[in-house]
Design brief:
Shape: globular
Number of strands: 8
Number of domains: 1
Distance between the termini: 34 Å
Helix content: 40-55%
Largest sheet: 8 strands, mixed
Mean pLDDT: 93
Strand content: 5-15%
Length: 228
C-alpha cells in the first residue's frame, strides 16, 4: 500500500488529487490547516486527516509524527498548499507569501525526509507554477508574459528551485515541480474560467506515481518538461 500525504488537501486540486490516488489504492493523508474542514474532506474521501499548517513548525512535526506512528514510512509527498495573494506588494505580504509557498515546502519536506527514506519508491511532487519560470515570463508568446504577479511568481520560482536542489541532495527520492494548468478553484475564482479540477489533478497523479526510473529535478506540465 502506497502511503501519501497531501498538504492543503481539503479542497481544489489537493482534494481531487487525493480522490484519484485513493482510486489507485493509495492510503492518503489529507493535510489541512483547518481541522473541521480537513476532517470533513477526509471523511468524504475515505482518507485519514492530519492537522497541518505549513507555516507552523509544531503543526508540521505533529502531522509527520502521527504518520510515522501509524504507517512507519511515507511513499509520496504532495506539497500542494499555497496562496495566490491579492496583488499587494509590500513587506508583510511578501513574508506571508514566501512563508507559505516556499518556506512551507522546506518545513514539510524536512519533516518528511526520514519517512520518505524508508520507502522503496519515494516521490515528492510540488505544485509550483510556470509563473515562476524565467523562460515563460520573458516569452511574449506565453500568457505568463503579460501577468503581473510579483510575489506569487517569485515564491513559485523559489519552489521550483527548492525542488531542483532537493533532487540533487536526495538522489534516492524523485522530486518534481508541477505547473498544474489554469484551474477552476477557489484560488482562481476572481479570475474566472479555468479547466475542471479533475484534469489538473491527473497531472499531479502522473508525477506522484512515476516509477523508480522516472524524472527528477524537473518542472513539468501536462505535456512534459518545461523550461524555467
Amino acid at each position: 500500500m502506497t502511503v501519501t500525504l497531501i498538504t492543503g488537501a481539503n479542497k481544489g486540486i489537493g482534494f481531487e488529487t487525493a480522490r484519484q490516488l485513493i482510486e489507485l489504492g493509495h492510503t492518503v493523508y489529507v493535510g489541512a490547516r483547518d481541522a473541521e474542514r480537513g476532517a470533513k474532506a477526509a471523511a468524504e474521501l475515505g482518507a485519514s486527516f492530519v492537522q497541518l499548517d505549513v507555516t507552523d513548525d509544531a503543526s508540521v512535526a505533529a502531522a509527520l509524527a502521527r504518520i510515522e506512528d501509524v504507517e512507519g514510512r511515507l511513499d509520496v509527498l504532495v506539497n500542494n498548499a499555497g496562496i495566490l495573494g491579492d496583488g499587494t506588494v509590500d513587506g508583510p505580504t511578501a513574508l506571508q507569501m514566501f512563508d507559505t509557498n516556499a518556506v512551507g515546502i522546506v518545513r514539510v519536506t524536512e519533516a518528511a525526509l526520514p519517512l520518505l527514506r524508508r520507502s522503496e519508491q519515494a516521490a515528492v511532487v510540488t505544485i509550483s507554477s510556470s509563473m515562476g519560470s524565467f523562460w515563460a515570463v520573458t516569452n511574449p508568446e506565453r500568457p505568463e508574459f503579460g501577468i503581473p504577479a510579483a510575489l506569487y511568481a517569485a515564491s513559485k520560482a523559489a519552489a521550483t528551485m527548492l525542488t531542483l536542489q532537493y533532487s540533487k541532495a536526495q538522489p534516492g527520492i524523485r522530486f518534481n515541480a508541477l505547473e498544474p494548468g489554469f484551474t477552476d478553484t477557489d484560488m482562481t475564482a476572481a479570475m474566472g474560467g479555468g479547466r475542471p479540477v479533475q484534469e489538473s489533478a491527473r497531472v499531479v497523479v502522473r508525477l506522484a506515481t512515476v516509477g523508480p526510473g522516472g524524472p527528477t529535478g524537473t518542472l513539468q506540465d501536462e505535456s512534459g518538461e518545461l523550461a524555467w
